């Protein structure tokens, strides 16, 4: 997995960095809150099992 900065993630997703450092780097990222590790960037993907329902669990596991 290639490391990404918050600014790069924002640019790729059409979002904006509203809080935090645009230069913050994430070496790990994922979409499964059960596999989330501390410091990982969690993407909440909509769908049949909507990732937004698991944001609290991912944050509780240390994800950003």
If you had to describe this structure to a student in words, what would you say it looks like?
By secondary structure, the chain is of the alpha+beta class. It has a single domain (4-60), classed as MurE/MurF, N-terminal domain (Udp-n-acetylmuramoylalanyl-d-glutamate--2,6- Diaminopimelate Ligase, Chain: A, domain 1). It is 22% helix and 12% strand. It is built from two helices and four strands. The chain has helices at residues 6-13, 55-60; strands at residues 4-5, 25-26, 29-30, 41-42. The protein has a two-stranded antiparallel ribbon. Strands 3-4 form a two-stranded parallel sheet. The longest helix has 8 residues, at 6-13. The two termini are 17 Å apart. The model has no long low-confidence stretch (mean pLDDT 92).
């Amino acid at each position: 997995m290639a490391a990404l900065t918050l600014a790069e993630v924002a640019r790729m997703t059409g979002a904006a960095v509203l809080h935090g450092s645009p230069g913050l780097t994430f070496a790990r990222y994922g979409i499964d809150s059960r596999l989330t590790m501390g410091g990982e960037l969690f993407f909440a993907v909509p769908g049949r099992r909507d990732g937004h329902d698991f944001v609290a669990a991912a944050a509780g596991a240390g994800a950003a």
